[in-house]
């Protein structure tokens, strides 16, 4: 199926109602793995962080990571879930080279948390996403396919395996079918993942950096004719790893399903790969059913039975949750629901807050992170937090603007320099010679020259057309290579021409 064969989004929605299910995997930030003492630090030599347990060697026995369980309970509580009084791990049996035990230790019919919800905001309206379950499991290792053009196994000459990731704790959060979102389904999907990410970060259980795979989303989607009870066959787009991609994947699948169904075809239940370049999906493998995995309770681990005292203690210690915090910040920053939603979607709330904490005012902090820096992050396909500039540095640029050392244009150049690795804002200002010309004598000369060179405009201004001063300001700014304070230049021009501003 190519993109040209899709039906338009409007036509798809006119004929069908989308039903979504979102499965989000979150890698916990514990120091050690879920069932052994191996380190989880990123960037180690391949297979350096392994032991008999996470390599599945005979005779090794797993032990549950208490912090992993605690994190799972915190996530469950923050998602308004019930917390199991007693639950077990289960073996999910399948062969895959990146899983040396030949089974994944997961949870099956006894998840640690279940029956919750998360309220998300789309266009100022609250949409409740119901949570089926949140369960604990472990990550697999990582395969690298070498020699092929695409990095996929097809066409590769050989594969490399790194088990450092095998056994890192994961929490999988599964929604109930999301119905009733209609044409906003893709936006609801994005808002849900964005909200969930904020929640996970607020709980401090993971950095939830999607671009690093610490949080990834499977988008299940099906269509049914309006008024139909029964769900259609779903496709599952795997491992979507940015908020934007979650929205695009849902949108593409709605259009693709509608094209297949509208053409009299049937949807195959399968996993699909998402392609960042054009927002399309292509088939992966035909989806297994749960029974294919031969789940059974894990005999090597004792059941998990969190005491009610512990659960209530964790509930009492939950931090201010993101939606409550956003309402507070929205009032403090004096912005609309819609503006706050953009900040959330851009992943910039913490950055703006930190910039304000470092001394900037709310308007300026938001302006830089949502303007210049959001644009740069978007261009480079990274989260703003991954840009090589800190909130403290942005606050310093704001301070330089406030004290009149930099104007807007120079501030932008300063930020450009910091991003280019030229040092701190002050170092960039010094090295690039960026400074507002505040020497009144030099400015006066530049203004005189501009007036002399533009006599006709000057006459208009003298005649009362104050708006024409803009052209002269522009001429002075050009002559000073942008390093003058435009407001002061305008004052000087009007002063010299004897006109009241
Ligand atoms: Zn290990």
Helix share, percent: 25-40%
Strand order of the largest sheet: 2-5-6-9-1-10-11-12-13
Distance between the termini: 64 Å
Q: Largest sheet, if any?
A: 9 strands, mixed
Helix and strand composition category: alpha+beta
Shape: elongated
Structure, explained:
There is one protein chain. This protein is an alpha+beta fold. 38% of the residues lie in helices and 19% in strands. The chain is built from 17 helices and 14 strands. The chain has a nine-stranded mixed β-sheet with strand order 2-5-6-9-1-10-11-12-13. Strands 4-3-14 form a three-stranded antiparallel β-sheet, with no helix packed on it. Strand 11, helix 4 and strand 12 form a beta-alpha-beta unit. The longest helix is centred in the middle third of the chain and has 20 residues, at 243-262. The model has no long low-confidence stretch (mean pLDDT 92). The structure holds zinc ion. Residues 33, 36, 38, 50-51, 53-54, 167 line the site of zinc ion.
């Amino acid at each position: 199926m190519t993109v040209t064969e899709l039906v338009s989004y409007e036509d798809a929605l006119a004929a069908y109602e989308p039903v979504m299910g979102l499965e989000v995997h979150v890698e916990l930030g514990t120091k050690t793995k879920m069932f052994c003492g191996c380190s989880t630090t990123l960037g180690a030599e391949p297979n350096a962080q392994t032991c008999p347990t996470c390599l599945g060697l005979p005779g090794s026995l797993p032990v549950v990571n208490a912090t992993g369980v605690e994190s799972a309970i915190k996530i469950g509580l923050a998602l308004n879930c019930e917390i199991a009084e007693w639950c077990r791990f289960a073996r999910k049996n399948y062969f895959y080279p990146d899983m040396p035990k030949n089974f994944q230790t997961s949870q099956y019919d006894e998840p640690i948390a279940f029956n919750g919800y998360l309220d998300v905001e789309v266009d100022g309206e609250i949409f409740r996403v119901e949570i089926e379950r949140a369960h604990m499991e472990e990550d697999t290792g990582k395969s690298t396919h070498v020699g092929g053009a695409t990095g996929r196994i097809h066409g590769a000459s050989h594969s490399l395996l790194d088990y450092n990731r095998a056994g890192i704790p994961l929490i999988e959060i599964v929604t109930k079918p999301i119905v009733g979102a209609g044409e906003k389904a893709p936006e609801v999907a994005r808002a849900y993942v964005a909200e969930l990410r904020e929640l996970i970060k607020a709980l401090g259980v993971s950095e939830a950096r999607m671009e690093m795979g610490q949080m990834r989303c499977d988008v299940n989607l099906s269509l049914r004719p309006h008024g139909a009870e029964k769900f259609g066959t779903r496709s599952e787009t795997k491992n979507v790893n940015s908020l934007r991609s979650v929205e695009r994947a849902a949108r593409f699948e709605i259009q693709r399903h509608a094209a297949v169904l509208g053409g009299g075809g049937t949807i195959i239940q399968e996993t699909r790969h998402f392609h960042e370049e054009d927002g399309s999906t292509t088939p992966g493998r035909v989806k297994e059913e749960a029974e294919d995995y031969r789940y059974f309770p894990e005999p090597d681990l004792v059941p998990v039975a969190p005491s009610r005292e512990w659960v209530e203690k964790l509930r009492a210690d939950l931090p201010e949750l993101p939606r409550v915090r956003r309402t507070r910040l929205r009032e403090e920053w004096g912005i609309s629901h819609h503006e706050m939603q953009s900040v959330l979607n851009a992943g910039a709330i913490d950055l703006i807050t930190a910039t304000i904490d470092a001394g900037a005012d709310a308007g300026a902090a938001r302006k830089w992170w949502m303007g210049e820096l959001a644009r740069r992050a978007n261009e480079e396909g990274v989260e703003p937090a991954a840009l090589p500039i800190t909130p403290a540095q942005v606050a310093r640029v704001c301070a330089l603007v406030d004290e009149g050392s930099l104007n807007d244009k120079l501030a932008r150049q300063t930020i450009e320099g910091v991003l280019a690795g030229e040092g701190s804002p002050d170092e960039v200002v010094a090295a690039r010679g960026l400074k507002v010309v505040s020497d009144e004598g030099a400015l006066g000369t530049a203004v005189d020259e501009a007036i002399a060179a533009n006599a006709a405009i000057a006459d208009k201004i003298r005649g009362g057309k104050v708006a024409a001063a803009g052209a002269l300001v522009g001429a002075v700014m050009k002559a000073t290579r942008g390093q003058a304070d435009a407001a002061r230049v305008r004052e000087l021009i009007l002063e010299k021409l004897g006109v009241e501003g």
